[in-house]
User: Which sequence fits this backbone?
């Protein structure tokens, strides 16, 4: 029994070391990409010059992930922060995969994949989400209760509420700086609401699926399943 516990502790420590590398890498990559985008973007579609790019869910989800990475790094020596850090990391990872999925399924066909997977956008739309997803699924210990699956939905809902409210108050706007930069209300506000409701539902589905996959892999690899 003691030997089993020691093996589990050693495996957890190894996993933490690997995750430290992942998280420091992701933090540096996101920060570099965001600053590069902010200094070089020329107000093209789905990009804004300067630091006004924080209006995009893509940028916000990446910055959220960067914050979650640092919080995880701090939680390794400060164990009392661990469950909170893992919850934030889980929420940020799902939000990143929402970005990945929306670009792949909706924005790519609408605006063209070439522009959305080039330059700094390639990192924010593709590389960061996939690396974050891999780190969560294969190395994160499953602290997450089922109720936590609602947190990413709340993040997406709040963004969508502000997005649609801004359009209602200020109108759709015109290029090169439209308020409906994703084009979700191109067929009317009602259609835009349906799209965001669908995204919220899909977010919850992804959230549940990712948690289940994390639990399944953790069980197969004998990762610690403690929620404390």
Assistant:
């Amino acid at each position: 029994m003691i030997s089993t516990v020691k093996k589990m502790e050693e495996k957890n420590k190894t996993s933490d070391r690997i995750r430290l590398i992942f998280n420091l890498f992701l933090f540096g990559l996101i920060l570099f990409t965001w600053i590069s985008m902010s200094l070089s973007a020329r107000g093209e579609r789905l990009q804004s010059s300067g630091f006004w790019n924080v209006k995009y869910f893509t940028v916000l989800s990446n910055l959220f992930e960067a914050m979650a990475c640092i919080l995880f790094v701090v939680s390794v020596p400060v164990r009392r922060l661990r469950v909170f850090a893992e919850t934030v990391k889980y929420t940020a990872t799902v939000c990143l995969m929402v970005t990945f999925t929306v670009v792949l399924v909706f924005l790519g066909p609408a605006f063209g994949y070439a522009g959305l997977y080039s330059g700094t956008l390639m990192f924010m739309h593709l590389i960061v989400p996939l690396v974050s997803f891999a780190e969560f699924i294969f190395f994160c210990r499953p602290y997450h209760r089922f109720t936590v699956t609602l947190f990413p939905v709340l993040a997406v809902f709040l963004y969508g509420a502000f997005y649609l409210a801004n359009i209602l108050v200020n109108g759709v706007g015109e290029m090169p700086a439209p308020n409906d930069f994703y084009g979700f209300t191109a067929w009317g506000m009602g259609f835009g609401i349906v799209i965001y409701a669908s995204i919220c539902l899909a977010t919850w589905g992804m959230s549940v699926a990712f948690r289940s996959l994390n639990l399944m892999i953790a069980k197969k690899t004998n990762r610690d399943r403690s929620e404390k």
